[in-house]
Amino acid sequence: MPRFIIEDDFWSLFPHAKIGIVICQGIDNSIRDVEIYEKLLKEAEKDAHKFLSLEEFSSNPVISVWREAFQKFKTKKGARCSIEALLKRVKNGNPIGTINPLVDMYNSISLRYGLPCGGEDIDTFVGDIRLTQANGNEPFLPLGQDENAPPYEGEIVYKDDDGAICRCWNWREAQRTMLTENTKNAFLCMELIDESRSDEFHMALKELSDLVPHHLGGMVKREVLDISQKEMTIFE
Predict the structure, then answer these.
(1) pTM summary value
(2) What would the DSSP string read from start to end of 82-150?
(3) Which residues are in the B3/B4 tRNA-binding domain (predicted)?
(4) Cβ neighbours around 49 below 10 Å, total
């Protein structure tokens, strides 16, 4: 029974954070009906312009709140929250292309709600998953690269017993655990650090958990972890 555990060294930095989890079991993530996901993303990109009302990109609240958060731990130079990377593409008129249904769905929710989302293939996990500060020697092979790039000591990471699976909290995914069209069981996460947006966060999480079975079948469960509930069982 693998678990997802958020360690106290994370809570010492971000005591008011909420981490939303959607566990997907027995889904069919094969690539088909691409036009459905192209439409989802296109509509989400239009919605995302509401988060870019200020001329100076980094001053927009959904970006500045994460820039401040990333200053609380050691990060790789230039590392930015995943939602900033998506919104930069929207601002520059660079469309978000389809990848596979699960990734397209969480990217569309991320854009619509201005919240970082990510996902991993549960069947690649080794032991429990932890959100914690890195010790600095966790193996990490970034998506699309072929050289080990371990996190810094003290960097916020998701990791399992085999190494880091996402660096700088939500900046860069690992190749080992990435979602593919063969993924059957998925761990999707959504992160909140701006307490004033709790209602939107819960709405976004519910929408994501409804989208998955509608398009891909299978079963889902969702949970929200915070400082009063620091862990959950991934599979019963």
Answers:
(1) 0.96
(2) HHHHHHHHHHTT-------HHHHHHHHHHHHHT--EEEEEGGG--S-EEEEE--S-----BTT--S--P
(3) 64-217
(4) 12
